[in-house]
Amino acid sequence: MTPMDIDELSVVLPTTTTSSLSLLLHPLPILNISEHLTRLKLQTKSHFPFGKLLGALLGTQNGREVEIVNTFELAVEDGREDMVDHGFLVQRRDQYKQVFPSLEFIGWYTVAPTPTSRHIALQDQFTGYCSTPLLLLLQPSLSLSTNPDITGQTLPFKAYEPSVEIRDKKTRSVFIEAPYKVETGEAERIAVDWTAKGGGGNTSLESHLQAQRAAVKMLHERILVLVQYLTNAIAGQAPKDHTILRSISALVASLPASEHKGFREEFNTEYEDVQLTTFLSALTKSTNTLNDLVDKHLILSGAPRDERAMGPGPRRRMGRQGGMLGDWAMHS
Fold it and tell me: What's the pLDDT score for residue 145?
């Protein structure tokens, strides 16, 4: 007997046994599972958190054609890593069902070098949600460094389909490796490309800001060169070139004075004059608008023609239509 037979029988059938399943894997589950593993590594400070990474697969199934479209993480019972929290599973599944009605629970995922009897025990817990739940296994033991060509490297994922094997007149649950293809839509290509670039975007605003930043940086560097030259010239460490000094003087003279006391006082005075002029203009405009409104009110209230033609001057207090015109009318 082989050492494997003495220790534990393999729960994966040999590669000579092939699966007729047509499996399509979308990029989103790959990203979700990779992010899940990376986050657990940082939280647990362990390179192989095999017992804690567990999740569900969502997708569509039409006969032997299966698509894995999305995933969500699963929880386990407190103190029991081999027991799935079914209440949490049902709740999350129903929530996803409300947002994605076409997606069904089709399997689960975890991380391990190879399937074991522990995965068979977990597999049995998912048969109540799907008759043949698939297993998507992330295998970090598959070293990507064996292939120096990055574009030719394969993904460290393997998919397994559950099956039943008859051995020594007894049946046992096993897995059959199922080949898969990566399927991407147009929206997924854009998202994956955006993620591969680190989340950056080549927008016009970003290009404009980058150009502005480069211009300010260049201006700052040139100003530092001029300041350094003047410092060295004053200290006698650099020869005084009067042409350069006149150019610097003309450049400084063309710049607006900003912190000089006289300039600040004059600037404040002019600013207050402009503000006062603007305020008077707005006040005059409002007065004219009010005058037009009073004239229209007099016309609508039916005032006599001679009162409307009096022109500018104090207005008479008007009463209700058909009543007395006011105190002035009593003395007229």
Answer: 47
Nearest to 114 by CA among 158, 71, 66, 170: 158
Alpha carbons 291 and 118: distance in angstroms, whole number: 90
Burial class (CB in 10 A: 0-12, 13-18, 19+), 143: exposed
The answer, as to whether pTM is greater than 0.70, is no
Amino acid at 204: S
Cα separations (Å) of 60 from 65, 105, 128, 176? 8, 8, 17, 20
Q: Find out whether 181 and 23 touch, Cβ atoms under 8 Å.
A: yes
Series of mean pLDDT values for 10-residue runs along the chain (332 residues): 50 81 90 88 75 88 90 85 88 91 92 87 89 88 52 75 84 88 79 65 70 91 92 90 89 74 83 91 92 89 57 48 44 43
- The amino acid sitting at 260 is H
Kindly write down the DSSP assignment for every residue of 19-33, as one continuous string: ---EEEE-HHHHHHH
Q: In the structure encoding, which two tokens stand for residue 74, read together?
A: 């699963």
Residues whose CB is less than 8 angstroms from the CB of residue 238 and which lie 6 or more positions away in sequence, other chains included: 229, 232
183, 23 in Cβ contact below 8 A?
no
At 135, give phi and psi (nearest 5°): -120, 120
C-alpha distances in angstroms, 291 versus 61, 269, 297, 308? 77, 33, 10, 12
Token pair, residue 204, equals: 């016009």
**Cα–Cα distance between 146 and 139 in angstroms, integer?**
15
Beta strands in 30-140 (DSSP E): 54-62, 65-73, 76-77, 80-84, 104-111, 134-138
Tell me the residue length of the chain: 332
DSSP code of residue 145: G
β pairing state of 170-178 and 157-167: antiparallel
Contact indicator for 123, 107 with CB cutoff of 8 Å? no
What span, in angstroms and rounded, lies between the C-alpha atoms of 122 and 286?
A: 80
CB 137 within 8 A of CB 111: yes
Report how far apart the first and last C-alpha atoms of the chain are (Å, whole number).
132
